[in-house]
């Protein structure tokens, strides 16, 4: 096994010998030397090839562009993805990750966890930390130097490039290009998700993938139908007519809750850049464009027209609840909320693709294709291969026996079937809570769900994915972007609320953008320019 102590000493020297600390932007805020501040990007790293898995045939296959595979039902005839135990010979494997659910019973009292270790062929010692505390706990682990075999690296981790390249294993010899074929389910992760794993000439992590569909303007299709409105507006004017038709203040009904998502949606009609625009290596922020300023002005007009909930400026509205009970007819949320809204509130949900402002097609901003990264302690190639095979096992798709066990446990003990849907038992609800999806995960899918909903979700993605606008800075790294994200976002959020609410005129936008640039926006730009230049 490779000794990582030298790298750790060098790293701690770089940060002044202090324990890494979690600040508003994430970890390692104590890292402020010139050396650690160098921007990083996937300069010469050869990312893994995308090799779509054909082991299980979905009802509707994924597309190379990013449309998700879709399933109408859970397959009852399962396929074994592995004929052996992927971690055989790995012994104890320490894993450090976060979680959003209550902590499950420990290994000694958890039959599911014991069965997991048996199937994997290794003893997975998983340390689970609630998400709110994860950055602080990870800072302690990094400062202590006794790194786990496998650890989740948060997207909010400052000095992420230094942590990965100095302390973690370079996986490029095992994953670059066609080498990834030895891990067929990691190879099944779309290329967009791998962009943030490469630094210099190496690959230092595997991604926890997310869909590129991004944020969706959701609509109450049932309410739209009842009122005879157009569910697919073809211009800004038609969208305005839809919002007006969904608003009836006397009946406690409005089109919108909070203005933020509406500004983005109108911006999509106006072809506002996705965070940044790049031309010839030069970067322009979306905030610096006239189109972004116009989007704010248009939403201010909507607010004056009474299309927003009267408490929209308070920031404390429970948007999903209000959408579910019909108070709001439209709401902006992540793509995964489609099922949450439909299942929780038993309503018919639709997604509106942004039209062009005056007609035709608008654009669709891609979402962040990676939730977080999974990195590995430096070790000899054979041990890293075993750890990657365990992650490959954890990334098997729906329709495999491995997936069903991972998500639901042992049939008859942890779940039973009800109308072709696996339903967890009381024991399953207690034991099958290990946050394995934050170690490695298969690409997201549509369904399984009722055919009409899956078809609607698929039709939406087939419409918007071909017109998706990517963020050209995706995969580039900026310390300032992470360190000052909260401060910079507050500048823009405040001026948006002031303008939309009428407290300030639209002219206040230019002053706020200038403040944003001084506070860090220009520094982010410089770091992205340098990172792009390093790619040659």
Descriptive report:
- The chain is α+β, with helices and mostly antiparallel strands.
- It folds into two domains: 281 residues, D-Maltodextrin-Binding Protein, domain 2 (3-Layer(aba) Sandwich), CATH 3.40.190; 151 residues, Periplasmic binding protein-like II (D-Maltodextrin-Binding Protein, domain 2, 3-Layer(aba) Sandwich).
- 37% of the residues lie in helices and 13% in strands.
- It contains 19 helices and 16 strands.
- The strands form six sheets. Strands 2-1-3-13-6 form a five-stranded mixed β-sheet. Strands 10-7-11 form a three-stranded antiparallel β-sheet, with helices on both faces.
- α9 crosses α10, α10 packs across α18 and α18 runs antiparallel to α19.
- It is globular and about 65 Å long.
Q: What is the annotated CATH architecture of the largest domain?
A: 3-Layer(aba) Sandwich
Task: Assign an overall shape.
Answer: globular
Unreliable stretches (pLDDT < 50, length at least 5) are 1-43
Structural classification: alpha+beta
Radius of gyration: 24 Å
Helix content: 25-40%
Cα(first) to Cα(last) distance is 34 Å
Strand content: 5-15%
The CATH topology of the largest domain is: D-Maltodextrin-Binding Protein, domain 2
What is the C-level CATH assignment of the largest domain? Answer: Alpha Beta
The main β sheet shows up as: 5 strands, mixed
By oligomeric state, this entry counts as: single chain
């Amino acid at each position: 096994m490779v000794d990582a102590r030298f790298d750790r000493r060098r790293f701690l020297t770089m940060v002044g010998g202090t324990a890494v600390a979690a600040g508003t932007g994430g970890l390692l805020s104590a890292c402020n030397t010139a050396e650690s501040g160098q921007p990083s990007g996937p300069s010469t790293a050869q990312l893994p090839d995308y090799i779509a898995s054909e082991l299980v045939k979905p009802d509707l296959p994924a597309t190379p562009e990013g449309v998700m595979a879709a399933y109408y039902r859970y397959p009852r005839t399962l396929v074994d993805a592995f004929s052996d135990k992927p971690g055989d010979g790995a012994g104890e494997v320490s894993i450090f990750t976060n979680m959003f659910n209550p902590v499950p019973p420990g290994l000694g009292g958890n039959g599911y966890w014991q069965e997991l270790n048996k199937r994997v062929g290794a003893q997975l010692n998983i340390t689970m930390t609630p998400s709110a505390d994860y950055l602080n706990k990870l800072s302690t682990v990094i400062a202590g130097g006794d790194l786990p075999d496998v650890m989740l690296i948060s997207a909010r981790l400052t000095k992420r490039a230094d942590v990965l390249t100095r302390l973690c294993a370079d996986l490029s010899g095992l994953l670059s290009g066609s080498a990834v074929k030895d891990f067929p389910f990691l190879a099944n992760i779309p290329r967009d998700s791998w962009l943030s794993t490469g630094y210099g000439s190496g690959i230092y992590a595997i991604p926890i993938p997310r869909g590129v569909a991004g944020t969706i303007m959701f609509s109450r299709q049932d309410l739209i139908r009842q009122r005879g409105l157009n569910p697919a507006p073809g211009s800004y004017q038609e969208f305005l007519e839809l919002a007006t038709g969904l608003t009836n203040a006397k009946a406690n009904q409005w089109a919108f809750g909070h203005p933020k998502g509406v500004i983005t949606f109108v911006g999509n009609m106006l072809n506002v850049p996705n965070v940044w625009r790049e031309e010839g290596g030069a970067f322009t922020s979306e905030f610096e464009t006239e189109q972004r300023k116009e989007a704010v002005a248009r939403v201010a007009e909507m607010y004056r027209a009474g299309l927003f909930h009267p408490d929209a400026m308070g920031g404390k509205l429970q948007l999903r609840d209000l959408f579910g009970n019909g108070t709001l007819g439209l709401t902006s949320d992540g793509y995964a909320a489609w099922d949450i809204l439909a299942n929780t509130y038993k309503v018919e949900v639709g997604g509106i693709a942004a039209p062009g402002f005056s007609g035709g097609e608008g654009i669709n901003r891609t979402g962040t294709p990676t939730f977080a990264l999974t990195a590995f302690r430096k070790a000899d190639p054979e041990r890293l291969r075993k750890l990657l095979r365990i992650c490959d096992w954890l990334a098997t798709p729906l329709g495999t026996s491995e997936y069903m066990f991972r998500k639901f446990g042992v049939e008859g003990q942890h779940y039973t079937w009800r109308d072709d849907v696996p339903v967890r038992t009381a024991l399953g609800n207690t034991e099958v809570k290990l946050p394995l999806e934050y170690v490695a995960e298969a690409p997201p899918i549509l369904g399984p769900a009722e055919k009409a909903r899956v078809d609607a979700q698929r039709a939406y993605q087939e419409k918007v994915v071909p017109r998706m606008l990517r963020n050209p800075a995706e995969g580039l790294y900026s310390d300032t972007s992470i360190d000052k994200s909260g401060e910079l976002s507050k500048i823009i959020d405040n001026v948006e609320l002031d303008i939309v609410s009428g407290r300030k005129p639209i002219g206040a936008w230019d002053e706020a953008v200038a403040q944003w640039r001084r506070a860090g926006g220009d520094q982010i730009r410089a770091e992205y320019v340098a990172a792009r230049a390093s790619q040659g």
